[in-house]
UniProtKB/TrEMBL annotation:
Residues 331-450 form the RagB/SusD domain. This is RagB/SusD family nutrient uptake outer membrane protein. Keywords: Cell outer membrane, Membrane, Signal, TPR repeat. InterPro entries: SusD-like_N, SusD_RagB_dom, TPR-like_helical_dom_sf, TPR_rpt. It is found in: Cell outer membrane. Pfam families: SusD-like_3 (PF14322), SusD_RagB (PF07980).
Amino acid sequence: MNNKRIKIYSALTVILMSALSCRNYVEIEEYGTRTLKSTNDYQYIVNNKANFENTSIFPIASSDDLTNVLSAAAANRLGAQNLNAYLWSETFLGDNQQDAGWNNLYKHVYIANEVLAGVMDSENGTINQKQVIASEAKVHRAFAYFCLANQYAPIYDPSLAATQAGLPLLLTPSLFQNLTRVPLQVVYAQILDDLVTAVDALPNKPRFNNHPSKLAVYILLSRVHLVMRNFEEAGKYADMALALDPQLLNVEEFLAETYPQPLEDPELVLSKMSAGSIVGPVNSEVLSLYNDTDLRLTYFMEEDASLGGFKYMKPTKSGSFFTVVGLSTPEIYLNRAEVYARDNNALKVVELLNILREKRFKETDYIPLSVADVQNDLLQAVINERRREFVCTEMRWYDMRRLTLDGKYFKTVTREYDGQKYTLEAGSPRFVFPVNQEILNLNPEIGQSPR
């Protein structure tokens, strides 16, 4: 076997790159080295949640979940980088600043590639153990590429994806690779291939939610197919996830105590966290979607006079600094409900929404939805529920992007800050985040996103 020597810092590695750069990297003092030789070495890599957990933060700042009129005090709480993302600025970062999202997600890709390059030839492990480790690496890589594609690549349009410039697609840990962007269709084909070839080796549910499972794969496949507008496939994988009996948490049970920490949250299927926290006032339009007795409003929001509105508090309620942005069981019900809505099946839409909503109200306050409540616009009813459930996570940004292809279901967003107005319209190049200039200086072939 060709043993690989890599740097180990705490669990595995600090990627020795300036962001993605696969040829130009900054050497830093080595804490320790270890040869990846045994299967347990690779097991150690995938067991350490720090290697794959932290993701990005700009999607939260860019989405219309935050207020559209920002005060100076609120802007100060956001910080300069998040403020730039909030305003969909030409650039988000200043000189010598790093893009945590790009760095973290390509770090996940790099570590997954290291695992996949060596685990099947490793020593002293069973075939089954090696296959599970490889499959976990594939799921983490697929999740990273999905996030990257929905931040730094164009909105997936089935009629254009074969020619849309996607991302640098790295499938080996080599430091010498072609970094030219491949077509977006190729990126998504790789995401799907990683997931469908990983699923068989994985358990139905994870023992710990930092490990991928069949349930996680089915949720992610459903999400990916929604973005690709393969609605029948999205529904199929949501049904496969539902067949595994996913658990929903009754929020009422936690009103007098701390909400479960991410590791203990039964709804969290694959733990991923934001790269920092957003403290900003929530859009009044979103707040108006909640019934006064909806516990997501009363328990996960809190009024902050210094911000001039309500702020999102769920991370604090769970004792976490970061926002959960991974795969969760509510998404299964909402993905399936959306596909039913697109098929004009009002009865199934109401059934699925009620399964979720029943867990978001006190028993004495809960009133089930009826067909009459949603039949005027089934898809809008599902979109509204997605906004209530996924408020102030990355999901709204991903939904905003794909809904630009659905006509009236995307509304132009206009923001005001410091006497100026900023507008995000369907078709705007600002739906694609800029690539950090420091990365382009090292690797100009990647090319800047159109601004």
